[in-house]
Design goal:
The chain has two domains: 139 residues, 3-Layer(aba) Sandwich (Rossmann fold); 151 residues, Rossmann fold (3-Layer(aba) Sandwich). It is built from eleven helices and nine strands. α6 links the parallel β5 and β6. The chain is globular. The two termini are 15 Å apart.
Length: 310
């Protein structure tokens, strides 16, 4: 079992067969995670550096747990507590880490394209843990994996991605991944948060959230990323919740059941109400569990191993 790529820089570069291979491998690792002893020594001679130039809780913890479940040695690097704050360049930072004989780098960076730049200058495998507003490939994979668990084949299914599409790297990875798997994608949210010309990616745009939900089988709700917005793009969070938030009353009015996802962190009462986030059709906690299995699969496959551990 192997991938057609050396790095996981974005889902845009993956083939459909790569995605299926990752999913099959994640299925195996999810079984490992159900055991009393949740470790396999597949990467016991591998050292992985988690280099985060942006703050992260879920993604960083999920990667670290996945790596340790595989038996790898893990080095965690935070830019805020490093020589980056003294002016050290990205290349120098990573080369210094690689000089310590690191085999793989998991990197999050605020600049779109930073993982591609790095991949051109170093030999180690790079996993993109989120770059600017470009992509967040493992999140896109785990979202699609969670949908697949409930529906099986996603071909012909309709997925609505609702919220701050313009500033979301999760939205981009979801679009690429779902389209490669044969799903139809609708994006919905305020006009100021929908990128111009996004229809050129083959998605539909629906500014009414209720109409988008009426057309879909699955809804992936995104948070408002105020930290990335350079100017106000809607009048208030209260207005957003009123017109674009997903609540139980809205779902009850659909006369059908749809699967609810959210990549987190959740702004309860803004883009999604608690009774929806915690409701019976929500798989938000499943996404968290699946994130570890997907990241185990990606790390394992990029390490060059060819046989699944028992």
């Amino acid at each position: 079992m192997s991938l057609s790529v050396k790095h996981l820089l974005g889902i845009k570069e993956l083939q459909q067969q790569d995605i299926e291979t990752i999913f099959k491998t994640a299925d195996n690792f999810k079984q490992v995670l159900q055991r009393p002893i949740k470790k396999v020594p597949a990467l016991r001679d591998t050292t992985i550096a988690n280099i985060f130039f942006e703050n992260s809780t879920r993604t960083r913890t999920s990667f670290e747990l996945a790596e340790k479940r595989l038996g790898a040695d893990v080095v965690n690097f935070s830019a805020s507590a490093s020589s980056v704050s003294k002016g050290e360049t990205l290349i120098d930072t990573v080369n210094n880490i690689l000089a310590m004989k690191v085999d793989m780098v998991v990197m999050r960076h605020a600049a779109s394209g930073a993982p591609w730049f790095l991949a051109q200058h170093i030999d180690a495998s790079i996993i993109n843990a989120g770059d600017g507003v470009n992509e967040h490939p493992t999140q896109g994979l785990l979202d699609a994996f969670s949908m697949r668990e409930k529906f099986g084949d996603l071909s012909g299914k309709t997925v609505a991605i609702v919220g701050d599409i313009m500033h979301s790297r999760v939205a981009m990875s979801n679009i690429y991944c779902l389209q490669k798997l044969g799903a139809k994608v609708i994006v919905s949210g305020p006009p100021t948060l929908i990128p111009k010309h996004i229809e050129s990616m083959g998605v539909s745009v629906e500014y009414s959230v209720k109409k988008a939900l009426q057309q879909c089988d699955i809804a992936n709700i995104l948070r408002i990323q105020l930290e990335r917005q350079q100017k106000p793009l809607f009048s208030s969070l209260r207005e957003y919740a009123l017109f674009y938030g997903v609540n139980k009353q809205m779902l009850d009015s659909l006369n059908k059941e749809i699967l609810i996802l959210h990549p987190g962190p959740i702004n309860r009462g803004v883009e999604i109400d608690s009774d929806v986030a915690d409701g019976k059709h929500s798989v938000i906690l499943d996404q968290v569990e699946n994130g570890v299995a997907i990241r185990m699969a990606v790390v394992y496959l990029l390490s060059g191993n060819r046989e699944m551990p028992e």
